[in-house]
Amino acid sequence: MTIDDVAGELYGLDPSDFVATRTERAAQAREDGDRELAAAIGALRKPTVAAWTVNLLARHAPKEIAALLDLGDALRSAQRQLSGDKLRALGAQRQQVVNAMTKRAGELAAEHDRPASEQALREVGQTLTAALADPDVADQVRAGVLPATVTYDGFGPAGLVAITGGKAKAPTKRASARPKKSAEDAEAARRAEAKQELDDAESGLAEAKSAREEAEKAAAQAKSELDEVEQRIEQLRADLEHAEQQRHFLRTAEHRARGESTAAKTQFDRMQRWVERARARLDED
């Protein structure tokens, strides 16, 4: 298990599952004796809704993302060549592609039961635009592991100012040496990590509370509907019992009526024969 493996898994999850799964993976790394990996996993930030939407797009439309980032390479090449006509043509194409990809991201979010707001979609578009200008952002977008959206000022390596999670950063060389952290820096980093974990935990708690309230509301609604159905069943049972009683009574009445009808017919036949004999005697006289 590597940090890339875990990041790929976590940033592909629904945001509501992020914190719990991150905690599980960090605990697993500690059990395996890899404290450095556990710390790195714990430092992974839960993605914002807009960043999750970009990550979703990267996973479900990888070919389109690749085409978008290829356009970024062409734009940077045109800038280096100072080709104004080419830059204008590519710039117009860039806006069309970003708009189409942003729309697609919104459709995917809705399909995953997390419709994106207009603000979130604006941030998605800004991030895709930044990915066209900054190879580092492009790598994160391609991998689908963005923790926060990114905006930029200007276009191209020289004029780029990427803003991730609300903090601005100028482009840095990938091969630059990292200064050693002092004890104060390490403590500040530890506190920042703890604060981030607290924020994530509180966010997870809020989501769990919302889910609990929704579940309780759904349970109450189901209970109300169940009570209504049971009342209907009781009423139908009472109606059925009453109908059974009526059927029994009517069967008895029908049987009695048939007996009376048979007896009446027998009596009628007897009277008719009597009348015929009386008429015959009268004719003989």
Quick overview of this protein structure:
The chain is mainly α and about 280 residues long.
Describe the structure.
With 285 residues, this protein is mainly α. It has a domain at 47-174. Helices cover 77% and strands 3% of the residues. β2 (162-164) and β3 form a beta hairpin. This is Transposase. Residues 181-198 have a biased composition (Basic and acidic residues). Residues 167-226 are annotated as: Disordered.
The amount of helix comes to: over 70%
Q: Major sheet: order of its strands?
A: 1-2-3
Element order: H for helix, E for strand = HHHHHHHHEEEH
Strand fraction:
under 5%
Low-confidence segments: 155-181
Output the number of helix runs.
9
Task: Give the beta-strand count.
Answer: 3
SSE class: mainly alpha
**Roughly what is the average pLDDT, rounded to an integer?**
78
Topology:
Layout: H1 3-10, H2 15-31, H3 35-42, H4 49-60, H5 62-80, H6 84-111, H7 118-133, H8 135-143, E1 150-151, E2 162-164, E3 167-169, H9 183-284
Helix pairs in contact: 2-3, 2-9, 4-6, 4-7, 5-6, 5-7, 6-7, 7-8
